[in-house]
Amino acid sequence: MKDSIIYMPPGIEEAKENSSKKLHWRVRYVNRISKRIVEKRVQSTGVYHSQHRILMIISDAPDISQKELAQRMEISTAATAVSIKKLMNSGYIERNTDENDNRANKLKLTDKGLELVKSSREMFDELHESIYKGFSEEERAQLAKYLERMCENVTEYYNETGKR
């Protein structure tokens, strides 16, 4: 891979083209570079990566509770509380008490939060188009099938090894 900006372990470039090791590193490379691009673009907003993720989740699930948000992010409610407070103080989200349960809070994006999510979605669309540039619809569909199978395989492996 020419001009790689991510460390590639010795021997990866020399490995057979279709070796599982080389394929794995290429998938990781795309993921890591994509993440760096997003972090760089989001950095100018003053919102950290994890806070940005919170905004995207709230956008997809308006009036989500803090508990549900923590579950989706697979972190504790205490961990989300810190980010939620910062996002509220910055004017990106608001918290309202649930009408049916005074102990629960519902989270909602403000206009400022909606604007950030809108520009982020445009940035993601641009990034995705650059990643899949030159791929036909058929190639994208085939890649989706392969990646879905990989997701199933790694989930199965995770479930098997987690029980040991």
3D structure, described in words:
- With 164 residues, the protein is mainly alpha-helical.
- It has helices at residues 20-43, 49-60, 66-73, 77-89, 111-131, 137-162; strands at residues 64-65, 93-98, 101-109.
- A 3-stranded antiparallel sheet has the order 1-3-2.
- Strand 2 (93-98) and strand 3 (101-109) form a beta hairpin.
- Helix 1 (20-43) packs antiparallel against helix 5.
Task: Give the DSSP E fraction (strand runs of 2 or more residues).
Answer: 5-15%
Determine Rg (CA atoms, Å).
Answer: 20 Å
By secondary-structure content and strand pairing, the structural class works out as mainly alpha
Uncertain segments are: none
How would you state the average pLDDT, rounded? 86
The largest sheet, given as strand count, sense and whether it forms a barrel, is: 3 strands, antiparallel
List the topology elements:
Elements: H1 20-43, H2 49-60, E1 64-65, H3 66-73, H4 77-89, E2 93-98, E3 101-109, H5 111-131, H6 137-162
Quick summary of this structure?
The protein is mainly alpha-helical and 164 residues long. The protein has six helices and three strands.
Quickly list its features.
6 helices, 3 strands, 3-stranded antiparallel β-sheet, mainly alpha, 164 residues
